[in-house]
Amino acid sequence: MIVEPLPSKGRRSVKLATARLNLWEGSVRSGKTMASLVAWMLFVRTGPAGNLAMIGKTERTLKRNVIDPLIEMVGPKRCRYVAGAGELWLFGRRIYVAGANNEAAVSKIQGLTLAGAYVDEVTTLPESFWSMLLTRLSIDGAKLFGTMNPDNPNHWAMRDYLKRATTWLRHDGEVIVNEGPDLLNLARFSFRLADNLTLSREYIEALSAEFKGLWRLRYIEGLWVLAEGSIYDTFDPTPGAGHVITDAELPARMRRWVLAIDYGTVNPFVCGLIGIGPDTNDPTGERERIHVVREYRWDSAARHAQRTDAEYSQALRAWLEQLRVELNDPLDIDRVFVDPSAASFITQLYRDGWYGVNTAQTPTLNPVLDGIRAVSSLRSAGRLVIHESCPGIAELTSYVWDAKAAGKGEERPLKVDDHYPDMERYAVAGLRSEWRHWMTGAVDLDELDVAA
After folding, report:
1. Please, which residues bridge with residue 346 across strands?
2. Most exposed residue of 17, 297, 308, 441, measured as fewest CB within 10 angstroms of its CB?
3. In a domain? residue 450
4. How far apart are the C-alpha atoms of 199 and 188, rounded to whole Å?
5. Are residues 257 and 181 in the same domain?
6. What radius of gyration, in Å, describes the C-alpha atoms of the chain?
7. In a domain, 239, yes or no
8. Among 377, 393, 355, CA closest to 290
9. CA–CA separation, 355 vs 357, rounded Å?
């Protein structure tokens, strides 16, 4: 790893990081993590004696986001990670390492007395854990250093902490020093993508193209904005306009076929036939994308008839046989990604001899939001398209955020007409090994759980 000198804004933030709480927030790849690590290393070398801790959503993500860069910056002799013991040795000081992915994680730090702490992705931690962590910083001169991406402006990290900063290095580079009885001994450093002067213009343009709407405001501009209205607010349902394709835009052959299923008995049952194949609009013929080619849907309420698991399995086989003729393709399905809550249906598929059945579930960082962000990024980059025959187009246009939850600082879709969007997320999660290398800054789904 080549460690570039910190851009000027990063250097300024390190000099200003003298408060009890020092928090870097802003866009992805903006340099905030590198600046925070420099400040943390200086503190480890010069701060008061006592226990230190480094916290992440999981120990795995902490290692990937923070510990690995630290080792590359200072070398394995000065920074050594002992995974089995949950310890990191940095400049001869032992640092306890822990993940905080749920409320029970509070027990990991109860009883500790800390001289300092580093927190990766503060907004992903339970508020109870964060509150307990602050009580543990009881040694004279103790300090906390943390990073986060923007979230809902009603999130506790913004509402109760960032808004109460005494020192604020703003997005525009101006330093504001606030006064008042309700303020905290907290320094806030706000970063935008443009603040990282080591990035090429081509990279910034590519990354910007992958994030649209809400995600662009948060992950490119570094703004704390409310998730409201339409979730896929840039989705264009017009056939041929880029997101919805016609028969003329379908490739003659797909390299790979899969199915993705959102299971329902009373609610609609939705299955997508999904092919990975060339982008017919790419003159080089080298670019691939994910095509939702056809959709099977059974709405029990509308049809006044429920189907059993066995009947769904049989219906899908009949549907595929019909499509083999219609599309003049053998449709060799190599994976079936199924709603992880549909245990009985998954069992039925196994009994009926379906090949490659997988639950659409892996370890989680942020259950539904990471899936929505991945879908949005792929669609914005022109890597995910849906055929005009699919009824799910209507659901994509009406898929909205839950306004009541947003007002409480939580972000989740309204659970109405969300069956096609859920199926699409399952497909994207299951196919992540196919598309990860397509994206520039992309969305890392190694720990994605797309279950609602």
Report:
1. none
2. 308
3. no
4. 23
5. no
6. 24
7. yes
8. 377
9. 6
pTM for the full predicted model? 0.80
State how far the Cα of 223 lies from the Cα of 57, in Å rounded to an integer. 22
SS3 content of the chain, % helix, strand, coil (to 5): 35, 25, 40
Angle formed by the axes of helices 419-430 and 367-380, to 10°?
80
Q: For residues 64 and 70, is the Cβ–Cβ distance under 8 A?
A: no
Q: Where are the beta strands (DSSP E) in 343-387?
A: 357-359, 384-387
User: What domain count does the chain have?
Assistant: 2
d(CA 143, CA 21): 6
307 and 194 both lie in a single domain:
no
Q: At 336, which CATH number?
A: 3.30.420.280
Contacts of 120 (CB under 8 A, 6+ apart): 33, 54, 55, 56, 57, 61, 62, 65, 66, 146, 147
Residue 303: other Cβ atoms inside 10 A: 10
From the number of C-beta atoms within 10 Å of its C-beta (0-12, 13-18, 19+), residue 74 rates as middle
- Is residue 223 within 8 A of residue 28, CB to CB? The reply is no
Structural domain boundaries enclosing 336: 226-438
Q: How far is CA 140 from each of CA 50, 96, 110, 188, 310, rounded to the nearest angstrom?
A: 10, 19, 19, 21, 66
Token couple for 139:
């040694």
Long-range contact list for 173-178, CB < 8 A, 24+ apart? 173/9, 175/12, 175/16
Are 397 and 323 found together in one domain? yes
Alpha carbon distances (Å) from 341 to 2, 71, 262, 358, 414: 45, 40, 9, 12, 18
Tens place of pLDDT per residue across the chain (452 aa): 444 556 689 999 999 999 999 999 999 888 899 999 999 999 999 999 999 999 999 999 999 999 999 999 999 999 999 988 899 999 999 999 999 988 889 999 988 999 999 999 999 999 999 999 999 999 999 999 999 999 999 999 999 999 999 999 999 999 999 998 899 999 999 999 888 888 888 888 888 888 888 888 998 899 999 888 899 988 999 998 899 999 999 999 999 999 999 998 888 999 999 999 999 999 888 899 999 999 999 998 888 889 999 999 999 999 999 999 999 999 999 999 998 889 999 999 999 999 999 887 543 445 688 889 899 999 999 999 999 999 999 999 999 999 888 888 888 899 888 999 999 999 999 999 999 889 875 444 444 333 33
Tell me, what DSSP letter sits at residue 171?
T
- Tokens describing residue 8: 């000027």
Q: What's the token pair of residue 424?
A: 């699409």
